[in-house]
Design brief:
With 411 residues, the chain is α/β, with parallel strands linked by helices. The protein has 13 helices and 15 strands.
């Protein structure tokens, strides 16, 4: 492979909240014509702490965990009080990313609705971003400012009728149509990153095993079929998630518990996880032991809703947190620290929480078929893609997946 030239594109497609069972259903769909037998699989991919979309996708991009790349929550911290004040932007991700490395090597790169890549300097960028009603932001201007304006305007003219704002499943239909359009071009992307969200949306609103979730998986299979047809026979596919989801029925009130105990602690929720930060008046020499005792008693309550937590040492070992947090809580099954009205499933748990792991499938040029690994890590994806392109990529905490053809691995 010459620098800046590749026979077929590499497709990195993230299906938000896909579980191993979901991917079984997607790959078995008749429209994918036996794709599962032509590739290799990691049954369980370890997610990040907390298991949220933005920390996970930053880990996928960098091959490093949240403490290193700096995106430790979906929302910025401390919360500003504005709606949709999330870690949208590439500038908030510390260090190198594999799309940047591939682009520097002269390859063409497209990113469609990929978390944390708003404002990225790539060839085609449709940013995943939202506008704040409180700030009276205009979403169209914000998207154009953080994406590729000409590409976005032309795409809206051609495919805008597919979209209904940011609602699913129409937004996935729109993004998939853009992917197909790009891949059919004579000089389309060598690397395509696509984030599909309708499975996650269905789980939140209907539950993990609901009919709506199964239908979202089936629609996702149809989109994949169209994308693969447009990509051609020399394409390489990496298909993966960022986390799974767990059904939920009850919200928790850590703020009330901490206040009742007289502890000056701020809570920044992460769905089924929550970071605890010391506030003015918190004295570690006096309050650390009190906090530990409160958490232990809470965990031991029957149906109290707390599965466990990471203290400072635990967060350091897990490579998460921003250095200021004292603890990261993990809700028990059925509970969440932030439960939006109408949500029936969620995520944000610690990565060792049963049922929260995601999965990965890969096939095509440069990939050996018929192999299965029981476990992998989201941090393995970045060095794998870099190896497929033969570009240097330093600093990753993961390693290339064991499915690459030897000729694709740089010497």
């Amino acid at each position: 492979m010459e620098n800046g030239k590749r026979r077929g594109p590499v497709l990195c497609i993230s299906i938000d909240a896909v579980s191993p069972d979901d991917l079984d259903r997607i790959l078995a769909h008749p429209c994918l014509d036996g794709l599962a037998e032509r590739g290799s699989r990691v049954r369980e991919m370890r997610t990040v702490a907390p298991s949220l979309t933005y920390p996970a996708h930053a880990t996928i991009l960098t091959g490093r965990r949240p403490a290193s790349h700096g995106v430790v929550n979906n929302e910025v911290d401390p919360p500003s009080g504005f709606d949709w004040d999330w870690n949208w932007y590439r500038r908030l991700v510390r260090g190198d990313t594999f799309p940047d490395a591939v682009h520097r090597a002269g390859f063409r790169v497209a990113t469609l609705l990929w978390p944390t890549l708003a404002g990225a300097r790539l060839d085609w960028v449709l940013p995943e971003i939202a506008a704040s009603a409180k700030l009276r932001e205009n979403l169209t201007r914000k998207v154009l400012r953080n994406g590729s304006p000409l590409f976005l305007l032309l795409s809206e003219l051609k495919y805008g009728s597919l979209r209904r704002g940011m609602h699913q499943p129409w937004l996935d239909d729109y993004a998939a149509a853009l992917a197909v359009d790009l891949l059919r071009r004579r000089r389309g992307p060598d690397l395509l990153l696509l984030h599909l969200v309708s499975v996650d949306d269905a789980k939140h609103h209907a539950g993990v095993h609901a009919v709506e979730t199964l239908e979202a998986c089936d629609r996702t299979a149809g989109r994949l079929s169209r994308i693969l047809a447009a990509a051609g026979p020399d394409a390489t596919l990496l298909l993966f998630g960022d986390h799974a989801q767990i059904d939920v029925h009850s919200g928790l009130d850590p703020v009330g518990r901490l206040a009742a105990a007289g502890l000056s602690v701020r809570v920044h929720d992460a769905g089924a996880g929550a970071f605890l930060y010391p506030e003015a008046g918190y004295l570690p020499e006096r309050d650390d032991a009190r906090l530990e005792a409160l958490l232990a008693a809470w965990r031991d309550e029957p149906d109290g809703g707390l599965r466990g937590w990471l203290d400072r040492a635990g967060m350091a070992a897990e490579r998460t947190g921003d250095g200021a947090a004292m603890a990261l809580l993990d809700a028990a099954d059925g509970f969440a620290f932030a439960l939006d009205e109408g949500n029936l499933a969620t995520h944000g748990h610690l990565p060792d929480h049963p049922g929260i792991s995601t999965t990965l499938f890969t096939a095509g040029s440069g990939i050996r078929a018929g192999l299965t690994a029981a476990r992998g890590d989201l941090a393995d994806i970045a060095p794998t893609v870099a190896a497929l392109f033969g570009v240097p990529f330093d600093g990753a905490e993961g390693a290339p997946l064991p499915f690459l053809e030897p000729k694709e691995v740089p010497r």
